[in-house]
Write a structure and sequence with these properties.
Number of domains of chain B: 2
Chains: A alpha/beta (about 425), B alpha/beta (about 325), C alpha/beta (about 260)
Strand order of the largest sheet of chain C: 11-10-9-12-8-1-6-7-13
Structural class of chain B: alpha/beta
Number of strands of chain B: 16
Number of helices of chain B: 8
Distance between the termini of chain B: 62 Å
Order of helices and strands of chain B: EHEHEHEHEEEEEEEEHEHEHEEH
Distance between the termini of chain C: 65 Å
CATH topology of the largest domain in chain C: Rossmann fold
CATH architecture of the largest domain in chain B: 3-Layer(aba) Sandwich
Oligomer: heterotrimer
CATH superfamily of the largest domain in chain B: HUPs
Shape of chain B: elongated
Order of helices and strands of chain C: EEEEEHEHHEHEHEEEEHEEEH
Bound molecules: flavin-adenine dinucleotide, adenosine monophosphate
Strand content of chain C: 25-35%
Structural class of chain C: alpha/beta
Number of strands of chain C: 15
Largest sheet of chain C: 9 strands, mixed
CATH architecture of the largest domain in chain C: 3-Layer(aba) Sandwich
């Protein structure tokens, strides 16, 4: 059997980040990517938090092909036709090195794949790995079609579906309850129109999240990110909720309906849909993170369940890149020691534990449970909407005092046993 | 006098080129000469002379039998010299298309092939042709002293050709071909003409098996349409080449083009860009065909086509 | 039989998008054209029958990574690859491409058969093969849908405008192929790995004894724009029968059906 030092399964951000680290240190690396090219089918809402990963591969992040630094954050609660939007703008979002950028994966991943190639790794697109080879519990290589290739270590970064890793017993099979499904369209609009519509300085971007009615009470929300000359518009819905829906409507119809809302329509008007995609997202939190390394392998990125959905911040790309980095470091250490066993690769998990990756996931331990609370996506958006709507409404009746109006709403909607329980469960997030 | 020289082994196309050449020649101050080659070319020559060519050069040299590219290019180069041609128009049939660049290379000329529009602008010729598989139309000018254009059939109309009585000359040419004909036969089967069809049902790889094409036929019958197809189905030899629509097939302009199981790659859709209405049946909502359709049905053709046939019964 | 296959790498047309009527090729990956893959496959099949060596020859046009992208040809079975890459050839016309390719063929030396695609993916001009044949003084057969070696000759079947032909050309010869000729095999991982160690040379114009002035373009592109299309983009909803009904009603309303 042909042998190489390291095989990376999956040329997404996690796999490429690992390959970059390995190839930079002179290791022999082969990245196998199923798609036509890296980034071809990878789906992301659109925002990369760069701050957490700047210290890994610092030479990369100043020249990465970003779309726009995010300067405006908007959140809209939608309920019963009432929309309440909160805007957070801060100079600190963009001052110096901006904290986050909108990105398009087709560009970002392709660029990173090129960098990986320049470092001497072999990046093979159009190559689907069919099986992880195991012998006596140790991962020994891969099979792609007819061909089997051996490796001292296999870095499994196959994304969220875990088809290979669960079949090989390295991870559990993904469960609907621990996943959300995302739909996304890239809609082209001229840069000037984007800057006018979102009131942006030239080159700057906005991130806009929506909660409530847009998902029809299901767990999730909608997002809108502005790119250079397009917007990424999408929706994330809990997979279990989606499945439980029995009205026969196709999931992508949600997004179509969302686009037709009177509040959203003017935002997308005149745009042409350039791309449509759907993808699932791990939302199980830290309790669903599998064993991170074993004999002859490590798992990284979405495969390792390293993704965090904290309502208004969705993070996965930064975790993928960080885990790839730490995977590479651990493999290099193992290589030096000539020990690719679970023990030899143990520094991987240790460094993830020391870093923001597992720490942030730990902090957010209870988010998945909170997110399963349907009131979050029905009751609260409605309550907030009703409250503000009542304060802003002047009809032909004598008006109650503004405080009275508000108090009535608060008493009705926020002071019940259920809401107190909810508040208790949210105290940690 | 410098001339526009026109040639096609297809007499109909050559007549069109004579008509077009006269128009361009008038704008550029050039006369028009035509060429007819091959055994039996004499008849074609008189036709071209009658169609308005000032001079027709004819050679029935046996080397031109079957119009091999090397011999025809050599013959045309010699005639171009005789005629003082500064512009050569060759019909962009397959034979013409493989000959024109060889001729251009001999003459040190620039060449544009698959030309679908050729106009005189400011004393120069501007040729239009598809680029990027048909996604765009490139308009190109040549900077060489002699210019060769391989012009698609029907780019010009032969109808307006003025009657004429041009001279016929029979130059002696030094030509030969090293390509030997082992076998040559006419294509069998009926010939379909998609160019003139008012309605076309275009079928593609969405059909799983050759037998299933009967569904396409039923739909076409119900719509009184002609069946066309993508290149893929012709490559499988499920349908004849003359049914291909697109860059390497027919460019059509029907009132209705209904595609079924066609993805809508640009090389195909360029052949229906002129349709008044484009409709598509495809099970993939993201298929590119929908981006250029007026009406779209997202669904499995094996369900949709029978439903359409059924519904059409009551029209 | 030693075969040189001329392969062009083009922007992946499925990813080229038209924006404001202009084709956007920025950030679009390049790949070897489909018809050139057919030509390569034909060469590999001929080698299996007649022995010899297959060389893939590519002139890089607007592709920074041509040497990388051409490795696919090696994985598909070519024995070696040559890439002509010279900044002076940023936007060559077909005469320039042919001149450079012909010079490279001479430098490669042994060559009994030169294979081309019927047309390149983005240009589809079908000029380069015929021009190379003329420069090298070789016989040419275009549009081959079957190629075989018989004695010192190549025998091809082709379908012309209204004739089916079987032709034979003495070697060395130029043949251009159509897509019906074969179904190119997709290389497996081992083939891709083996390709890594196959010889790949990169030549400049100077290596070919050519200078840029000889290859100056004779063609000026006045414009290159998409034609405007104004379509309705109406998608129907519902069951097959409901969609069929809505569609037929629309056709009637448009005046295409009924009256
Ligand atoms: C709708 C949506 C919105 C999101 N929004 C954000 C956001 O705004 N910010 C953020 O940081 N994160 C976001 N995420 C999460 C983020 O996209 C993921 O966490 C991230 O892509 C994970 O990277 P990865 O490399 O682990 O996996 P992937 O990017 O999925 O890469 C896995 C790769 O492996 C390849 N592969 C799979 N199987 C095989 C095989 N058998 N053989 C060969 N190759 C294989 C795939 O083709 C793919 O390229 C979002 C996700 C979704 C779906
Ligand atoms: C130089 C060059 C010239 C070319 N010239 C031409 C040309 O002139 N004409 C031409 O047609 N092509 C041409 N091509 C080929 C072209 O690029 C495409 O490969 C071809 O048009 C695709 O054919 P298709 O749509 O039948 O197949 P595919 O692209 O495979 O599409 C099949 C479609 O059927 C759909 N489908 C599958 N099953 C079903 C079902 N049960 N119900 C409904 N839908 C279903 C699929 O979703 C898919 O969209 C050329 C290519 C090149 C490189
Ligand atoms: N830049 C190039 N490098 C190598 N081969 C080429 C190049 N351009 C064209 N060819 C070959 O010539 C054929 C016809 O190309 P074209 O004349 O551009 O349609 C292609 O199918 C290739 O085989």
């Amino acid at each position: 059997m042909e042998q190489v030092e390291c095989i990376v399964v999956g040329g997404g951000l996690a796999g490429l980040s690992a390959a970059y680290g390995l190839a930079s240190a002179g290791a022999e690396v082969m990245v196998l990517e199923r798609g036509d090219y890296s980034g071809a089918k990878n789906v992301t809402g659109g925002r990369l938090y760069v701050k957490p990963i700047r210290r890994f591969y610092p030479e990369l992040w100043d020249e990465a092909p970003y779309e726009r630094p995010v300067a405006r954050e908007l959140v809209t609660m939608m309920a019963g036709g009432a929309h309440t939007t909160v805007e957070i703008a801060s100079d600190r979002f963009t001052a110096g090195q901006p904290q986050s950028y909108t990105v398009l994966r087709a560009r970002l991943d392709q660029w990173l794949a090129e960098k990986v190639g320049e470092k001497g790794a072999m990046v093979v697109p159009n190559m689907k790995v069919d099986e992880l080879l195991r012998k006596d519990g140790k991962v020994t290589g891969i099979r792609a079609g007819e061909d089997e290739i051996g490796a001292q270590v296999v870095i499994v970064a196959e994304g969220v579906l875990r088809l290979l890793s669960s079949k090989a017993g390295l991870t559990s099979e993904p469960q609907a309850r621990h996943h959300a499904i995302g739909y996304k369209e890239v809609i082209e609009l001229p840069a000037g129109v984007i800057e006018d519509r979102w009131r942006l300085n030239p080159g700057e971007g906005a991130a806009h999240l929506f909660m409530g009615d847009c998902t029809k009470g299901m767990m999730g929300g909608a997002f809108l990110y502005t790119n250079k000359e397009s917007i990424s518009l999408g929706m994330v819905v809990g997979m279990d909720d989606m499945r439980r829906r029995r009205d026969g409507s196709e999931s992508w119809q949600l997004l179509d309906e969302f686009k037709e809302l009177p509040q959203i329509k003017p935002l997308v008007a005149g745009g042409t849909v350039a791309e449509y995609s759907a993808h699932s997202i791990p939302e199980g939190g830290i309790s669903q993170v599998p064993k991170l390394a074993g004999d002859g392998y490590v798992v990284a990125g979405d495969t390792a369940g390293l993704s965090l959905n904290a309502l208004v911040t969705v993070r996965g790309m930064d975790f993928a890149i960080a885990s790839g980095y730490f995977a590479a470091q651990a493999v290099l250490k193992a290589k030096e020691a000539g020990d690719f066993s679970a023990a030899g690769l143990a520094s991987y998990e240790a460094s993830l534990r020391d870093s923001f990756v597992l720490r942030d996931l730990e902090t957010a331990r209870s988010i998945p449970n909170v997110m399963e609370n349907p009131r979050l996506f029905t009751h609260y958006p409605q309550a907030i909407g009703r409250l503000l709507e009542s304060v802003y409404t002047i009809d032909d009746q004598p008006q109650a005092g503004i405080v009275k109006k508000a108090w009535r709403g608060v008493r009705r909607d926020f002071m019940s046993v259920a809401t107190v329980k909810d508040a208790w469960s949210m105290r940690k997030i | 006098m410098a001339a526009v020289l026109v040639y096609s082994e297809k007499v109909e196309t050559a007549r069109e080129l004579v008509a077009g050449g006269k128009e361009l020649g008038a704008a550029l101050g050039l006369g028009v000469s035509a060429v007819a080659l091959g055994p039996g070319a004499g008849a074609a020559a008189s036709e071209l002379a009658a169609a308005g060519a000032d001079t027709v050069y004819v050679s029935e040299d046996a080397a031109f039998e079957g119009w091999p590219a090397d011999a025809v290019a050599a013959g045309l180069a010699q005639i171009a010299e005789l005629a003082g041609a500064s512009v050569v128009l060759v019909g962009s049939t397959r034979r013409g298309k493989e000959t024109a660049p060889r001729l251009a290379q001999k003459l040190g000329a620039g060449c544009v092939s698959d030309v679908n529009s050729l106009v005189a602008e400011g004393g120069d010729l501007v040729a239009g042709r598809y680029a990027f598989g048909g996604a765009t139309v490139a308009r190109e000018k040549l900077g060489t002293a002699v210019k060769v254009f391989a012009v698609m059939p029907k780019t010009f109309s032969a109808e307006g050709a003025s009657a004429g009585a041009g001279a016929v000359e029979t130059p002696t040419l030094d030509v030969s071909s090293s390509v030997k004909v082992v076998d040559r036969r006419a294509k069998e089967g009926e010939h379909v003409n998609l160019d003139a069809a008012p309605r076309i049902v275009g079928i593609g790889r969405g059909f799983n098996a050759r037998e299933d094409l009967a569904l396409g036929d039923q739909l076409a019958a119900a719509l009184e349409a002609v069946v066309g197809c993508t290149k893929s189905l012709a490559d499988f030899e499920w349908l004849g080449e003359d049914r291909i629509i697109g860059l390497s097939g027919a460019k059509t302009a029907p009132d209705l083009y209904l595609s079924v199981g066609v993805s809508g790659q640009i090389q195909h859709t360029v052949g229906v860009a002129g349709a008044k209405l484009i409709a598509a049946v495809n099970k993939d909502k993201e298929a590119p065909i929908f981006a250029m359709a007026d009406y779209g049905i997202v669904g499995d053709l094996y369900e949709v086509v029978p439903a359409l046939v059924e519904r059409l019964k009551s029209v | 039989m030693d075969i040189v296959v001329c392969v062009k790498t083009n922007p992946d047309l499925q990813m080229v998008r038209v924006k404001d009527r202009v084709a956007v090729t920025e950030a679009v990956p390049y790949k070897i054209g489909d018809l050139e893959k057919n030509a390569l496959q034909a060469a590999v099949d001929l080698r299996a029958a007649a022995g010899g060596k297959v060389t893939a020859l590519c002139l890089a046009v607007g592709n920074r990574k041509a040497a990388e992208d051409v490795k696919v040809a090696l994985a598909m079975g070519a024995d070696e690859a040559v890439v002509i890459d010279d900044p002076a050839l940023a936007a060559p016309d077909q005469a320039a491409v042919a001149t450079a390719l012909a010079a490279a063929v001479k430098k490669i030396g042994a060559c009994d058969l030169l294979l081309f695609g019927e047309g390149s993916t983005d240009n589809y001009s079908g000029q380069v093969g015929a021009r190379v044949a003329e420069i090298l003084g070789l016989p040419q057969i275009g549009y081959a849908r079957k190629v075989e070696a018989v004695g010192g000759a190549v025998r091809c079947e082709r379908s012309m405008d209204d004739m089916l032909e079987t032709l034979e050309a003495p070697l060395p010869a130029v043949v251009t192929v159509v897509s019906e000729i074969n179904e190119p095999t997709i290389p497996g991982l081992m083939q891709i790995m083996k390709a890594k160690s196959k010889p790949l040379q990169v030549w400049s114009l100077a290596d070919l004894g050519l200078d840029a002035a000889q290859l100056a373009p004779t063609r000026e592109i006045v414009s290159n724009l998409a034609e405007e299309q104004d379509r309705k983009h109406i998608l129907f909803d519902g069951s097959a029968a409901e969609q069929a009904d809505a569609f037929v009603n629309a056709l009637i309303k448009e005046g295409v059906l009924g009256r």
